[in-house]
Structures are given as C-alpha cells and as structure tokens.
Design a protein that fits this description.
By secondary structure, this protein is an all-alpha fold. The chain contains seven helices and no strands. Among the domains are: 48 residues; 98 residues, no CATH class.
C-alpha cells in the first residue's frame, strides 16, 4: 500500500496564520532596531488600533474646540486679575484722599489759632471807622461784598426783624448768624467776639430802618396830597326842582 499524506481538516497554511495583536506588537518591538540609524525610514511602529481607542477618539472634543476653551479660561483669569488690580488702585486712591482730607481739616482747625486776633476798633462802623479797611479787605472788594451778602442772608434766614434795634434782637439767633457766616468765610474767625459780623448786621438793620422811614414818609405825602385834592374840588351842583303852575 502506498502511504498517503494525511492532512488535518481545516488546516490553514502556516503563512496565513497571524499572531494576536499584543503578541504581534511585542514581536515587532523586539525585532525593531535599537539604533535610530538602523531604521532608515525613521518610522515608529505603532500598535494596531482597537475599537476602544476608536471610540475614545470619536468622543474626544476636537483640538480647535479645546484651544478655544483654554483661551477663554485664560481670558477670564486675566480679566479677574485686572479687576482685582483696579479695586486695589481705587482703594489706594480713596485712602490717600481720606488722608489728605483729614490733614486739611487739621490744618483748617489750627489756622485760626496761628493768626493774630484782630480786636474791635473804637467807635461805630460807618461813623468813626471804615469796616472794609479794618477787616483788611480794602483791596478785595469782591470778597467783602460776598461776606456782606452771606451775613444778610443768614440774618433773614433766622427770621429776625430788620426793623428791630440790634440790642433787642435774640442773642441765640444772632449767635447762629455768626456761626453760619464763619463757616462760609473762615476769615471772620480772626475778629474777636464776632465784632465784624455784628457790625455788618448793625449796618444792615440801620439801612433797612432808614429805607422804611423813607417809604413811610412818601406814603404820608401821597395821602396828604390826596386829602388836599379831595377838599379843593367843589361839590357838584344840585339840580333845581321844577315848579309847575296851573292855568
């Protein structure tokens, strides 16, 4: 009998058999040249991609989208830092302004103490001395006029009667007038016992009373002329009664 070659069923040629992916990758790595010069193509041997890697690649956001997100985060961080810097600068400016204001207030309170007080001159303002010259404002008519207006407005705001003598005015209301004038014009603090402001009020009362007397005199003259005119006019003639005579 002749020997027959017995072949197993479903036998696959040796060249058609492929190793599993992991084994293939291991063998490829072991057989790859260790020296970069041994691989003239300079290509790296990559393992075959599996289905899991494919799904991860599909789910991962595109590179452009990741770049936009990172850029937005960087912009937000820079904006926050800029806002913090602005807040810090504003706080520093506020603190500096408060310090300057406090220093100015301290200087304003100490300024009247450093200046020499000016005592009241003898006599009456407008009669024995000129108030503007005694106040040292002979060369500053604008400031003197402003002080006069402030004192008069404060006098009227206190509801004081300008036709009442100065000595009969309420002392408490006059004191309020003096304080208002000094706050508006610190130069008035130099005059002892508020004599300059008091002189302004006295002159105002004097001028209002004089003007009131002028108005009263004019009114009396008008009434006298009207009364004289009414008396000089003759009364109208009465019509004569007609008498009828019978025939």
């Amino acid at each position: 009998m002749f020997q027959q070659d017995i072949k197993p069923r479903n036998a696959t040629p040796l060249l058609a058999q492929q190793p599993p992916p992991a084994l293939y990758y291991k063998c490829a790595m072991s057989s790859s040249p260790t020296n970069p010069t041994d691989n003239p193509s300079n290509e790296e041997i990559q393992p075959p991609s599996s289905s899991t890697d494919t799904l991860r690649a599909q789910r991962a956001p595109p590179a452009r989208k990741r770049n936009k997100t990172q850029l937005q985060q960087d912009l937000d961080q820079q904006e926050n830092e800029l806002h913090a810097l602005r807040v810090s600068l504003e706080n520093e400016k506020a603190a500096r302004k408060a310090a300057e204001t406090a220093a100015g207030n301290v200087g304003g309170r100490t300024e009247p103490r450093q200046e020499t007080p000016i005592p009241k001159p003898k006599g009456t303002a407008g009669e024995t001395y000129v108030l503007k010259d005694e106040m040292g404002l002979q060369d500053d008519k604008a400031q003197y006029s402003t002080i006069l207006a402030t004192a008069r407005n404060a006098f009227l705001a206190a509801r004081l009667n300008p036709l009442t003598n100065y000595s009969e005015q309420p002392l408490r209301d006059l004191a309020n007038v003096f304080e208002v004038a000094k706050k508006a014009h610190p130069i008035l603090c130099r005059f002892t016992n508020n004599w300059a402001t008091a002189a302004i009020v006295q002159q105002y009362i004097h001028s209002r009373k004089r003007y009131a007397r002028i108005l009263v005199g004019r009114l009396k003259e008008k009434r006298a002329h009207a009364l004289h005119a009414s008396r000089s006019v003759s009364p109208p003639r009465q019509p004569e009664a007609s008498t009828s005579t019978g025939v």
